[in-house]
Amino acid sequence: MPGETQNPPAFDEATIAFAGRCFNLARGGYAAELEQLVAQGLPPNLTNDKGDTLLILAAYHGHHETVAMLLARGADPDRHNDRGQTALAAASFKGAERVVLALLDGGAAVDACGPDGRTALMVAAMFDRTGIVDLLLARGADPDRVDAEGRKAIDLAMTMKAYGTPRRLAAASAERIDSAKSQR
Q: Which spans of this chain does UniProt mark as ANK repeats (predicted)?
């Protein structure tokens, strides 16, 4: 009836156990097994109770081959979980450069974020992941973008007492300013 709220369907124990095995395959990097299931109809954007997709879990656990397979099978690279984290931010947090590359090569937006506005560059900067900061900047990440609280990546890095990333971010920001001035 219109206007009534509907409860989501209840799943039986076997369905819940199967979904749990699928999420464990993503966490464990079992790309071939997961690919077979996706080929048989498993949604590549299957999401758990925390909003984590198979892709986010594979990215967080550093499995670049599983990430590449899920992207090739249609997983949304920019979808965020209930905490506003994207697969790219998860890989950046963990320092998984090969996963970051797989995500970017697979179509992830370099400045994608959740509702909090926190990008992968901000996350990498906070945790002093200098190699990933360099990679994201080389792929076009905006060092001057602000999150929902008005903080830039450099602000977050300095708050977390990161050592190497603030200098890189300051240089990238200055380079953007100089480039903008020369184009006028």
A: 50-82, 116-148
Structure-block tokens of residue 47:
């999401």
Q: 16 phi and psi, to 5 degrees?
A: -65, -40
Residue 133, judged by CB atoms within 10 A of its CB (0-12, 13-18, 19+), counts as buried
Phi, psi values for residue 2, rounded to 5°: -60, 140
pLDDT digits (tens, 9 = 90+) for 46-85: 999 999 999 999 999 999 999 999 999 999 999 999 999 9
Total-model pTM:
0.91
Are the C-beta atoms of residues 26 and 57 closer than 8 Å to each other? yes
Give the domain 1-109 fold: 1.25.40
Q: How confident is the model over 7-32, as pLDDT tens digits?
A: 777 888 999 999 999 999 999 999 99
Instruction: Indicate the class that CATH gives domain 112-184.
Output: mainly alpha
